[in-house]
Amino acid sequence: DVQMTQSPSSLSASEGDRVTITCRANQPISIFLNWYQKKPGSAPKLLIHTATTLQSGVPSRFSGSGSGTDFTLTIDGLESEDFAIYYCQQSYKSPHTFGGGTQVDIK
Amino acid sequence: QVHLVEAGGGVVQPGRSLRLSCAASGLMFSYYGMHWVRQVPGKGLQWVAFISYDDSEENYADSLKGRFTISRDNSKNTLYLQMNSLRDEDSAVYYCAKDTLRYSRGDGGAYDVWGQGTLVTVSS
C-alpha cells in the first residue's frame, strides 16, 4: 500500500496567516493527490484534486502543489471557517490511502 | 442538487451483520464509481471499498476483504455495504462518496460528493 505522511499533525495559526501543510507518499503517485477538509459532525469536503486543481466552489485562498512524492496544501489568508482537520489522499492506486490529518487550530 | 443519504447504521453485537445503504439523487448515478470511507471517532479517515459504475470491479481495504461486500443497484440509484462478522474495531461513522470521474474503474479520481455518514457501533 502507498503510505501517506502528513506534517505537521497539528498547528496553531491566526486569521490572516499563511498556512502550509505537507504530504509525502512513500512511492511516486504522479499527480493523483487530493486534499479534503473535515469539520466535526460534517462530511469531508473536497478542496483540491489531482494535486493542483481547485474544486469548484472552493475559495481561491486554497492552493495545492507538488507531484511525485511531495505535495503541499497552502491556505493564503486563513479565515475563521478554515479551522478544521485537513487530510491528503492518494488515488494513484487502490487502496486510496489517506494521510493522518493536520489539525488547524486557532492561536 | 446532488445528494447522498446513508442509512442502516446502529448498534450491533460482535459477530453479527449489518447492511448500509446510500441513496443517491440529483446525479446520473450509473455513470460514477462509488466508495465507502469510514472514520473511527477521534481518528482519521480510512478508505473501505470501491465499486465501478457498472458493477464490474470491486476493491477492498485488505483488512476488510472477506467480511465486507460492496454492491450497487443502478435501477434504484443505491449503493450498499454488507458488513459481516463485525468486530469492535469496525465501530465508526461510515460515509459513501462519489468518484469525480465518469466511468471510473477505481483510480485517478477524487471524492466530490459525500453523504452525511451513518454511525455503526459494534458492542455487546
Description:
- The complex is a heterodimer of chains A (107) and B (124).
- By secondary structure, chain A is an all-beta fold.
- Chain A is built from no helices and ten strands.
- Chain A has strands at residues 4-7, 10-13, 18-25, 33-38, 45-49, 53-54, 62-67, 70-76, 85-90, 102-106.
- Chain A has a six-stranded mixed sheet with strand order 2-10-9-4-5-6, with no helix packed on it.
- With 124 residues, chain B is an all-beta fold.
- Helix content of chain B is 0%, strand content 53%.
- Chain B has strands at 3-7, 10-12, 18-25, 32-39, 45-51, 58-60, 68-73, 78-83, 92-102, 111-114, 118-122.
- In chain B, strands 2, 4, 5, 6, 9, 10 and 11 form a seven-stranded mixed sheet that branches. A four-stranded antiparallel sheet of chain B has the order 1-3-8-7, with no helix packed on it.
- In chain B, strand 4 (32-39) and strand 5 (45-51) form a beta hairpin.
- Chain B is globular and about 40 Å long.
- At the A-B interface, strand 4 and strand 5 of A face strand 5, strand 9 and strand 10 of B.
